[in-house]
Amino acid sequence: MLHSVEEKWIRGEIAKDTYERWYSTYSRNIVMLKGFIEKAQKSMDKSTEVLERNLSIERHQSNLC
Prior knowledge:
The chain has 65 residues and is mostly helical. The chain has helices at 2-10, 16-64.
């Protein structure tokens, strides 16, 4: 979406104030979504770590039997 707003401004299809408003909105959304993705990745990494630890414990216990 940001790319299309930039193209419209370059082609003179939207006014500068419209471009600045949408650019600001889209830029904020991009930063926010990148933050959500980063947070989700950290959560996923932690979940994977716990899963791997539990699987390792399970394997160790089954080898003892």
